[in-house]
Structure formats: C-alpha cells, structure tokens
Amino acid sequence: MIADNIYNLYCDESRVENRDSKIMVIGAIDIPRKEKSVIVADLKNIYKEHHFAHELKWTKVHDKFLPFYKRVIDYFLSKPSLWFRCIIVDKTKVNLKQYHSNDEELAFFKFYYLLLRERLFSNNEYYIFLDKKPTRDRHRARALHAYLDSFILWNREKCNIRDFHAIESRDNLLIQLTDCLVGLVGYACNEKIADNTAKGQLAGYLKECLKRNNICMTTPRNETKFNVFVWEGRA
C-alpha cells in the first residue's frame, strides 16, 4: 500500500523556444501517488464519453473538442487531489549574459528549479517526471535533480526525491494534462484572448471557474489548486 506522504509531480512547459512569444510558462501537477490509478482511469472515461482519440494537448484545442476540454477542466477543478503550480517568465527580463552564462537552456532549467523547490515539503517523498525534450547538454536534468537534492538537504526535513526522470508525454496522461494547463496559461499571457475561438473560450472558462479576472497574476503562496508565480527578475 502506498503511503499518504508520497507524491508524483508531472512537469511541462509552454512557449520556451517560441520567438514570437514574450512570455514562457513552466508548470507542474502534483498528486498523491496513491491516487494516480484513479485519476488516470477517470481521464480515460472522459475520453470515452467524448469519443476523444488524440493526445491531450493545448495545440489540439479547437471547436470540435471544446466540450471535451471543458470537461477536463471541470474534472481538474473538482478533484481535491489534483494541484497545479506554474511560473510565468517574461523572457525579455531574463539577463542571459549576466546571470546565465549567455545560455538560454541553463536559464530555463534554473526556472524549473524555482518552480519545483516550492512543491517539496518536509516529511514527504516525491517522484518527479519531466516531459522529455532535447537538450544541448544531456546532463541538464541530472543537474536539476542534484540542485533540488541540495535544496532539500538545507531547507527540508525527512524529504526525499525517490525518482526523477524525463518521459514521453504521449505515454503519460498526467503530463498531457499539465501540457494543457501550461499551454492555456501561456496563451492567456501572450495573446489577446478572442472569445470566438476555442482557445479563447477555454481560457475564459477557466477564469470564470476560478473566479479570477486574470490568470496571469501571482497568487498567494498558500493557494493550492491553481497556484501562479510571476517572476519579476532582479532590479
């Protein structure tokens, strides 16, 4: 039987390498590990209800599938054991030369670190899954894991990352769900939302459900369901 204090984190990003987008988003869903089978089964049932036979991705949102994506949002919001956190970064404020050795990839993984360290708490254990993406330095994920372990050593008690690796999103429904949520936030932060488009309607629907005028604003740190941190950079 899986203990109550073991969690899975599923991570993805949006608009990191898109030169036409000023804002990038990195996000993670975390769940109690013991809930994984139930959540995956629930999502598969939603697939069947809506005859959806594609990968759950933000890029797949269009009019034909809008009821399906709204149902997925409803499920996420209604499930107490599903939590989402994201970090929003204005790429024009990132001083690559001064702080990141003029290396965009290094900066990206530093923001991943800022995101994930806030989800690691004392007396818990974690399995962390990143969406697999090509990197110039094949040791980036390993270094991220090492820095998180160091953070835990100095800032947490009885906390441990039991597993940390990258997997293909097409093989994991929960990374796909993360993709959908980070893609939605990335869209809302970069585009002028048009209510007549499926993506605009879905972004508006989430704002309405969350009772927020803007989903691109920092939330209180104790917000658990849909936590947002807007990185402001250094003065």
Tell me what you see in this structure.
The protein is α/β, with parallel strands linked by helices. It has one domain: Nucleotidyltransferase, domain 5 (2-Layer Sandwich), CATH 3.30.420. It is built from 7 helices and 6 strands; from the N terminus they run E-E-H-H-E-H-H-E-H-E-H-H-E. A hairpin with an 8-residue loop joins strand 1 (6-14) and strand 2. Helix 4 (104-117) packs parallel to helix 5. It is globular, with a radius of gyration of 17 Å.
CATH class category: Alpha Beta
Per CATH, what is the topology?
A: Nucleotidyltransferase, domain 5
Strand residues, percent: 15-25%
Sheet having the most strands: 6 strands, mixed
Distance between the termini: 49 Å
Order of strands in the sheet with most strands: 5-4-1-2-3-6
Shape, per Cα inertia axes: globular
Radius of gyration: 17 Å
